[in-house]
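Key idea: predict the complex, not the pieces.
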Amino acid sequence: MPPEEEPPPTPPVAPVDAYAVLSYLLGGVILYGGIGWLVDAWLGTRGFVAAGIVLGAAAGVWLVWLRYSRP
Amino acid sequence: MHLVNVASRLGAAEGKEFHAPGPGDFEFPPLFGDGTFFTKPMLIIVLGSLAIAALFYLASRRASLVPAKAQFVGESVYGFVRNGIVGDSIGREGRRFVPLLTTMFVFIAVMNLAGIIPVLQLPATSKIAIPLFLAVISWAVFNYVGIQRHGFVGYFKNMMFPPGLPKPIYLLLAPLELFSTVIIRPITLTLRLTLNMFAGHLVLLVCILGGEYLLIEKGGALAAVSAVPFAFSIVLTFFEAFVQVLQAYVFVLLSALYIAGALADEH
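Result:
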């Protein structure tokens, strides 16, 4: 028999874990940086990688804010 | 039986030069000679699994109101995962995931702690296949329960379109949300655990092998200096024990958070 205390019915606070945030930040940089790299390779340009990385980092931060800033 | 990586150590003995430990120290030859496949990490998995099975068998056999030692340990771990991890993240609904997450926690903790158990002294989780497979299990579970709860379309709609944003923004955020949830999450789960164990083991190797080198190969005044790396190796072993349990906790907590996110009605 496990101990008898019941877990609380709902989480007391929104479960924010810094580690979970990491996937958004990495995802933004890798996804949009990767798209930028592909565009560069396709058009023979330079600079879309950098723009993509910056855009992706910003989008990642924004998404973290959207997901985890709610009270 | 090759319990120590013979090839790289032989090189160290011949040259009288210190060979810094590296990724090669994580490659093990088969234990029972050439042509067989059973290596030291596999041995650790088998022994660890048997130990865990024995613990929970003893814990659940003759369960009584006044618990014996094994029952107390088993219930403490189970209660910790249930109240400390699942209760705080998924809530009451998460009870059906407690057995899975408890098993995962104990398995990872034991595989990690093999890194500081004498003779074994290799965290099996430093081989990427093991964390990878655990991450795949976690990935499959949180996606499955999400699809089960919201339906296939509903789950991805729920995931990719957080409400309350102007429409054009979704063009930017929806692919990112999908990418980070479906692709990056299992990768970070895998790499966090693998590399923590890899780096921790490497640091211990540097201290212990460095001390051994100073003591045996160099001798003289440098032999006395070897006390420093040996002392460090003892301190770091305790630190590793902490990291090893912590990483098991982090892995399971994140799995629980991902399940909670997949079950949530709206983020």
